[in-house]
Specification:
Length: 307
């Protein structure tokens, strides 16, 4: 067996193990909880998670709806992908709207160009209470951020929706306890042990559909706070900023006014796998403005109920 063939066999075995474990988690949570929901942002991780959920319960549809916490500041391509994917699979979509939270006075309006990222926590918790969801599947991975590295696979939230990293249940030998008390709920992270490279290799292997912005394309951008932000209705060039036309793609997808692009000509899945394999900075560390404000930004938001 050649070295290249052996390497491919090792990768396949590794991805098979990750897939099997993720499907096991999905099935365990559904078996123990009454009203689960899958958080679906339209990003690559949630697309992989949804793909796994479809596999886990085939030939039936996944026995839960998908929910998007919509800030109203998303990339148009991501919303189009979200709606197209849900329609193709025949799933029920629940949209939890930050704009509705603003209209109801639940959160303060940051203005037309202000960030709505942190407001999502209130919108999410309100939606969980309204629909009485007792479990929410998310696509977070431990390699993304130090706060997410503290998460258990099953991460419990108290009756206020808050997270205490010091009060999580032990998970020994992949044994999970999914019971929740009345008023509490859990977040389940089947992709916890995956890396960004694992995700892309799995996307390549399974040919998982994704929004077009993950692939290299020509776009007007401005450089702001060390990031290349796409010029959209959410990002207006300031007088001192120079608009440039560049070949870029997005490694992660969040709000359009907080998510930076990277210079890239990776137009195929194979190209992206190679690019990620040689990257020296994590996708969030390089391109997410919501994580740049402080070292504890993610943990602070997670304690409030963020996913």
């Amino acid at each position: 067996m050649s070295t290249v063939t052996a390497s491919r066999e090792t990768q396949r075995d590794h991805l098979d193990l990750l897939e099997a474990h993720a499907i096991y988690i999905l099935r365990e949570v559904v078996a123990e909880c009454e009203r689960p929901v899958l958080l679906f942002s339209g990003g690559k991780d949630s697309a992989v998670l949804l793909h796994l959920a479809v596999k886990a319960f085939a030939p039936q549809l996944p026995p839960f709806p998908v929910m998007h916490v919509d800030t109203g500041q998303n990339f148009d391509e991501v919303i189009e992908f979200r709606d197209r994917t849900v329609a193709r699979l025949g799933l029920r979509l629940v949209v939890a709207s930050v704009q509705e939270s603003i209209d109801r006075g639940r959160v303060a309006d940051p203005g037309p160009l202000g960030s709505r990222n942190r407001l999502q926590s209130v919108t999410l918790l309100d939606a969980i209470e309204t629909h009485q969801f007792d479990a929410a599947f998310g696509g977070a991975r431990r390699d993304e951020d130090k706060a997410r590295a503290k998460e258990r696979v099953l991460s419990f939230r108290d009756s206020f929706g808050q997270w205490d990293p010091k009060a999580q249940r032990p998970e020994l030998w992949n044994l999970y306890q999914g019971r929740v008390n009345p008023g509490e709920h859990l977040r389940a992270f089947p992709l916890s042990d995956w890396t960004e490279l694992d995700v892309w290799r799995y996307i390549e292997r399974e040919n998982v559909d994704l929004p077009s912005i993950y692939f290299a394309h020509s776009r007007d951008v401005v450089e702001r706070q060390g990031m290349l932000l796409a010029v959209t209705r959410f990002v207006e060039p300031q007088p001192h900023e120079v608009v440039r036309r560049e070949s870029v793609r997005f490694r992660t997808v969040g709000d359009a006014n907080l998510t930076g692009a990277v210079l890239s000509r990776a137009g195929t899945l194979q190209d992206i796998v190679h690019e990620v394999a040689t990257a020296t900075v994590s996708e969030r560390g390089a391109t997410r403005g919501d994580d740049k404000f402080s070292e504890t930004a993610m943990e602070d938001r997670k304690r409030e109920g963020y996913f």
